[in-house]
Design brief:
The protein is mainly α. The protein has helices at residues 5-21, 54-73, 80-106, 112-134, 139-144; strands at 26-30, 34-37, 40-43, 47-51. The longest helix is centred in the middle third of the chain and has 27 residues, at 80-106.
């Protein structure tokens, strides 16, 4: 094969991450109105814009790093359920804070519903990143070993 096993895992993780972040992307399509010309009526071609909200980009980046943070504050013997609940709670807190930052920066009303709804894809991105990137590359084990001292 062209790729080594770790390279294939990383490529698969990045593909999974790309698909998971699709929930965050905003694609705005606007069509131009008909333009009346002296010779008749013509329709302008539709214009497409691909925009990324800075707050959404920050949330995606935080969601990618959250599994590493969970690994730092837990041990190898911590149950998977406890780690999952911690990751879900951190995803919720970051979503609430990102929406607060967006409301303050743009001077708009804080939308609690948007913050709650954004926590779901943030959690999915975190889980996908953990199983697709951090765990296969060994980052999870290395992070959980940080700060441990062996008895000598």
């Amino acid at each position: 094969m062209f790729f080594t096993r770790p390279a294939r895992r990383i490529a698969a993780a990045l593909a999974t991450l790309w698909l998971a972040t699709g929930a965050f992307l905003t694609v705005t399509a606007t069509s131009a109105t008909a333009v009346a010309l002296d010779t008749g009526t013509a329709t302008a071609p539709p214009a497409f814009a691909f925009t990324l909200d800075p707050a959404t980009v920050v949330q995606i980046l935080v969601a990618i790093v959250l599994p590493v943070l969970v690994g730092l504050v837990t041990t190898r013997v911590t149950s998977g359920a406890a780690k999952a609940w911690l990751l879900a709670a951190l995803s919720l807190v970051t979503s609430l804070l990102v929406e607060l930052g967006r409301a303050v920066a743009q001077g708009v009303t804080y939308d609690f519903g948007v913050a709650l709804l954004a926590a779901i894809p943030a959690f999915v991105v975190s889980v996908a990143t953990h199983y697709g990137l951090w765990k296969p590359t060994g980052v999870t084990d290395k992070v959980q070993a940080v700060g441990r001292h062996r008895a000598g």
